[in-house]
Specification:
The chain is of the alpha/beta class. The protein contains 17 helices and 16 strands.
């Protein structure tokens, strides 16, 4: 499809250099259709003192190309961006940075997609502003270490300002419906074309486990029910853990889990490496806890496993029921989680299993989600241009 003549701005909740979250996948898909400006969360001028990898962002042009049709902006602002007064100053500086970048690009803005609580929905004139809500921010206040009252006010501001409000789960849409009744549900997706190649990917050179293998790909943090992983490991099954760990989360329990001879943790990996790790696992694990934050979420990893043709054992979350497939085996407690995993590991994957996994993943691809997002973003334009 030829590039559109108008710019889309994606204001992200995570840096382009970080974990690939929903907004990154959408931005990459949008860039196939129109020019896209990706806006990182604002960075403190002191960030390089704590994070040496941030020095590059300060040395480079703050507005720079990533690929064809895709530019990246890193707003650099005052230190103390989490403190009440300085937070407001940083927000004003970040807004000025975006306006300057848009002036340099010299294109009219068709759509602004804000995937965070950053005050950017009205940063420049546009045809449609979209609040893309990926999480229940208030429910995650403790997880994010942020004042819940500020999160509540910021969420309500986004709901009030946006032309279009999108929630990634029906639970999240329901929680916000008391403030606004025209919320659209756009669940998370998967990079189907990339992950469906898992069986043809080169095997990783750092995995030393006998098959069959149950695998967890993701961040080991407070969102995870370690008891479910413990229960699977206790059966003697090979368990592969791929992803970073939160330094303060369940330190003793995770160390004990990693010490088991049938468990291997290989640390964080780039998204492009995931097909290789998906190749060596036979069952994907999504062991989320039953927190209010998790119940309003839509786990990306579940669709990633399906895209690779792997059946999944997953926590009893509403998003997993919404997928409506027998290839996501839902468990309510650690014992049930372990039993379901053992049952799947004991029988080889059939072509029918792989086909059904692929079918569910393909209809939930990021390409499909980007098309839906564009349709929602064009609706306000159509409504505004209609004759009175």
């Amino acid at each position: 499809m030829p590039a559109r003549e108008k710019l889309a701005i994606v204001v992200a909740g995570t840096s382009w250099d970080g974990v690939w979250q929903s907004e990154r996948h959408l931005a990459m898909q949008l860039a196939r259709r129109m020019p896209v400006l990706w806006v990182d969360p604002q960075m403190s001028r002191l960030s390089p003192l704590r994070d040496p990898s941030a020095r590059r962002a300060l040395r480079e042009d703050r507005l720079r190309p990533i690929s064809d049709n895709l530019l990246r902006l890193t707003p650099v602002t005052v230190p103390g961006v989490t403190r009440p007064f300085l937070r407001d100053v940083a927000a004003r500086e970040a807004r000025r940075a975006v306006r300057r970048a848009v002036d340099r690009i010299g294109m009219p803005v068709g759509m602004i997609v804000v995937a965070s609580l950053n005050d950017m929905l009205d940063v420049v004139p546009c045809e449609a502003s979209v609040f893309y809500g990926t999480d229940d921010y208030v429910a995650g206040a403790r997880l994010m270490g942020t004042d819940p009252a500020w999160l509540q006010r910021s969420t309500e501001r986004q709901l009030d300002l946006a032309d279009v409000v999108i929630a990634t789960s029906h639970v999240l849409a329901e929680r916000w419906s008391g403030h606004r009744d025209d919320i659209h549900v756009l669940p998370n997706g998967c990079d189907f074309d990339r992950l469906a190649t898992a069986d043809r990917a080169p095997p990783p050179d750092d995995v030393d486990l006998p098959g069959p293998i149950a695998g967890f790909l993701g961040h080991m943090s407070e969102r995870i029910d370690v008891g479910m992983l413990d229960a699977v490991a206790a059966t003697g099954a090979s368990v592969l853990l791929v992803g970073p760990r939160q330094p303060t989360f369940e330190i003793a329990r995770l160390e004990a889990l990693f010490a088991r001879p049938n468990v291997q943790w290989v640390g964080a990996k780039h998204f492009s490496e995931l097909p290789s790790y998906l190749r060596v696992i036979d069952v994907g694990l999504t062991p989320y806890s039953q927190s209010a934050f998790n119940r309003a979420s839509f786990p990306l990893k579940t669709l990633d496993y399906l895209a690779a043709g792997r059946p999944v054992v997953a926590s009893d979350l509403p998003a997993h029921h919404w997928l409506d497939t027998g290839q996501v085996h839902i468990a309510r407690d650690p014992e049930e989680f372990a039993r379901a995993t053992s049952a799947l590991l004991s029988s080889p994957r059939s072509p029918q299993t792989v086909c059904e996994c692929h079918r569910v993943a393909a209809r939930n691809s990021w390409e499909a989600r980007a098309s839906e997002l564009l349709e929602l973003g064009e609706a306000p334009v159509s409504a505004g241009s209609a004759a009175p």
